[in-house]
Amino acid sequence: MEHLFTKIENMRSKLSKGQKRIAEYIEEHYDKAAFMTASKLGETVGVSESTVVRFAVEIGYDGYPKLQKAMQELIKDKLTSVQRIEVTSTRFGDDNILESVLNQDIEKIKRTIDEISHEDFNAAVKAIVEAKNIYIFAVRSSSALANFLGYYFDLIFGNVRVVSTTSKIEIYEKLLHINENDVIIGISFPRYSKTAVEGMKFASDRNASVIAITDSMISPLVAPADHVLLASSDMASIVDSLVAPLSLINALIVATVLAKKASVESTFQRLETYWDKYDVYAKTSEIAKNTEEKEEKK
Known about the structure:
Layout: H1 4-11, H2 17-33, H3 38-45, H4 49-58, H5 64-74, H6 81-92, H7 97-115, H8 118-130, E1 134-137, H9 143-156, E2 160-163, H10 168-174, E3 183-187, H11 194-205, E4 209-214, E5 227-230, H12 243-259, H13 261-277, H14 284-297
Parallel strand pairs: 1-2, 1-3, 3-4, 4-5
Helix pairs in contact: 2-4, 2-5, 3-4, 7-12, 8-12, 9-12
């Protein structure tokens, strides 16, 4: 993809005075502009919203949302934690934070639906189902996703290893026996983990099937991957949004269950027997009874 700043420079001589002010602001403050609406950017620079939209088209984007995404790509691995807090404050201000965050997560799921490759998704499911061993590699905040996926895959397949170490030597120790019969699922979102990238490259060198769950085709996990599953993640806030990645993982679990429906049904029938025998789950009827008894005593 042509770099945003290159696009601006190539078209600079054709821009109006107002558009040049937009260009200058983006070049100097793209970390802030990346999360402004067209209206807010126009207000900040001193031009109309329509001028901002025309500027995006003039430099080669199909509307302002594509320009905004290009600006966000520039900062994926550059914002520090302190800068995240500043950006979050700018984005939400005094708005209803609950509604704002939930609505943005809804948008991330919608964007994931538009961007994910169904071909890669289906190929990833096939690779997982056919693998002798399944490795899931993720560290830091992404390890929560790995553990969730690992829990269900371990019930379904029984041949799963979750790797969440940040030690380089442990990466190679834990992936020592991975080979062409195995699959590795690497999960990482900005700021991308170097150890996750190294683990994926090591597995690829050993000819394992490599699946990347990440947010963008410029993610460093893409290069060693055979199958790329994109899920939108808003990294420029105080915490990473993992709503869309988790939804994608849910879909991956459902797809693999349906692909192995007969054996999975047998597995879960046995599990239900053990769960009942050892009283694993609270029964709603007992909870309701206890609640009624407490109410009567009052």
